[in-house]
Amino acid sequence: MPHARRTLAALTCTAVLCAGLGATAATAHPKPSPQAVFHRLATYPVYLNRPAGTPAADPTVAEISAVSEDGRTFIHTDALAGRIGFVDITDPAKPRGLGTLDLAADLGVGDHAEPTSVAVVGGYVLVVVDTSESFTNPSGLLAVVDLATHALVRTIDLGGQPDSIALTPDKTHAAIAIENQRDEDVAPAGGKKGDLPQLPGGFLQLVDLPGTDPATWTTRAVPFTAEALAGLDTPQDPEPEYVAIDPTGTTVAVTLQENNGVALVDIAAGTISRVFSAGSVAVTGIDTAQDGVIHQTGSIPLTPREPDAVAWLDATHLATANEGDWKGGTRGWTVFDTSGTVVWDAGAELERLAVRTGLHSESRAGKKGVEIEGLAVATLGGKRYAFVGSERSNFVAVYDVDDAAHPRFVQVLATTNGPEGILPVPSRDLLLVSSETDDASVLVRSSVSVFGRGKAYARTAGTPQFPSVVSADDAAGNPIGWGALGALSADPTDKKHLWTASDAAYSTAHLLRLDVSRTPAVIDRDVVVTQGGTAASLDIEGVSARRRGGFWLGSEGATGAANALVRTDANGAIQQTVPLPADVSAGLSKWGIEGVAATEDSRGEHVWVALQRGLTTDPGGLAGAARIGRYDVRIGTWAWFAYPLGTTTTAGDWIGLSEITVVDRDTLAVVERDKLNGPDAKVKAVYTVQIPARDPAPGTVGTLTKTLVRDLVPDLRATNGWTQEKVEGLTIGSDGQVYAITDNDGLKDATGETVLLRLGPAAKVFRAHR
Known about the structure:
Blueprint: H1 8-13, H2 23-28, E1 38-45, E2 65-67, E3 73-78, E4 83-88, E5 96-102, E6 114-121, E7 124-130, E8 140-146, E9 152-157, E10 162-167, E11 173-178, E12 203-208, E13 218-223, E14 240-245, E15 251-256, E16 261-266, E17 271-277, E18 280-286, E19 298-304, E20 310-314, E21 317-321, E22 333-337, E23 342-345, H3 349-356, E24 372-380, E25 383-390, E26 395-400, E27 408-414, E28 419-425, E29 430-435, E30 447-453, E31 469-471, E32 485-490, E33 497-502, E34 510-515, E35 521-528, E36 530-531, E37 534-535, E38 540-545, E39 551-555, E40 564-568, E41 574-579, H4 582-585, E42 593-601, E43 604-611, E44 625-632, E45 637-644, E46 656-664, E47 667-673, E48 684-690, E49 701-703, E50 706-711, H5 713-717, E51 727-732, E52 737-742, E53 756-761, H6 762-765
Parallel strand pairs: 31-35, 45-49
Antiparallel strand pairs: 1-30, 2-3, 3-4, 4-5, 6-7, 7-8, 8-9, 10-11, 11-12, 12-13, 14-15, 15-16, 16-17, 18-19, 20-21, 21-22, 22-23, 24-25, 25-26, 26-27, 28-29, 29-30, 32-33, 33-34, 34-35, 36-37, 38-39, 39-40, 40-41, 42-43, 43-44, 44-45, 46-47, 47-48, 48-50, 51-52, 52-53
């Protein structure tokens, strides 16, 4: 199979990442101009558009989407709630909910109806609805809804359980995949659970739309017989999944995901014109083990692609998103010509892109990795783009496909969890991405991300543009693996660099050097923390680089006694472990060390430690206070101070410290934050405290008075993305600038986006204390 491939360095450098990848690559692939960049304009949580009286925590999602012909009203399916939602995007930077329609209560199309797809024809919304009561008795209909009045105009029986819909360019025909999906808990005769065949088999339903009156619309079923699909895995049970219509409006491409095939259907004749296997591919240089370590030395053998979404690049090339199902999934996407020949395959590119941008999901490494599910193709600004969505790493990769046989990576866009619907709006140079994962119990909410292409949207774009951190290649040529950055420290001898660290999201501890002289900042060195020559397992929540070399680390333990200060040499080898005093560790629950900062002057070396919350053993006078401790390295003693935390009235929330840094000889800065994210985030702030002239008496706790320096919520919201919960790093670099960073939790119950905030000169940020 001929592939058009590039090195990952070249791949990455075609986007905003090129600043961090060296002069040679950057010269070969220059950074795109503002006219060619997609800017994030807004992130709209769809629970904000829920019906009156519906609890905010009720599951509600945005999956497949369409847009009105004027490009101003966005319509999305919500299978969890049995609704379709309407959102006004007249101002794409300020989406506004227009309400929802309940399929049962408002449209009367079935008590258990689920919308699976949606399209717009003129003034009508075509809602594809699954009304099946069982897998063995599948049913569905097409509900035609007036876009202006939201009234049900007509229903059309589809003869089976439907999935996706596509329209011809002139909107005179629609094609609907009738999947009649399998029951994953049923074993057919001689097979295992979920195996095929499970009849009745699916087919394609064509809907002819000859005029503006829905009463004249008619259907034509295209049977997918075993004879027509001969050569596929289980041709008697084709399981059509996704449909796309070519630019000429004459041919429908249908993915048969579980059969690992693609069928081409002639619309005029209503017959299958070609069927081909999507084939198999082996992928190397990826992480294939869920072991808490990002090892990019694994591979998968020849594996069926099992495509989900499909899109046409031009009249003779189509592309598939190879999500996989029960037998396959190859972590990428593929371009075929209409004969079924592979002309290009992404191979490991998207896996390695996820690693480079901190979006690698280690929990999915042993399964289907980035799991490429969504795919859309459109021409914006005269250029043909493919938009490729990763369900598990929460991004959309943008490719230039003007040359269909040689896709060229352009940019990576961060989304919220589980991007499902990818909707370009060429008339307005917009891209809308619907993310389907919604679980209020872990603060993950479904949303719609809005991106605008070109210079006109730069004024309202999120800052900083994603990604704000990328990694360079290691000595073996692999992007340095990273994530869950929970600490920051200046490099005391280098103005260009900071140090950060990964926490317990990974099974081994890593110190990472961050070049902040470039945008995005570049992780260019990885130091593994070792104990006796073996990689150590630490939950690093604080790091401070020492002027004399090496590091002080704050390791948060699962129990109070496991919290400790750790000193390493410059190569990460542990030299000393300092436990917290017994009376302090006895009062810690799961909230321990969350920040470390060290000073060294004529008074000696001292290490400051921030504990996230108060001690369970603290008396009433210290209620609501976190502890800040200072360790005197020379004599091995501790002094403790009480920091007054703010309060919250939100159920399940709490306020705590997440970082500490030294401003000057007498001033410390801390990050105080709540547990909330998205629109609910309220407390993400930098405060300063003055160090008392005298230490508290031994066995007592001193008191501190805090001063607000900067509310970070506006800084986080200025990215126009999901407002991140965990601001866990803060430092003043040797360049005099103030930096803050968010912990992405390794994508566990988080969007995965890491935000590096550049807050400006310390002399300005901390003006009152310098």
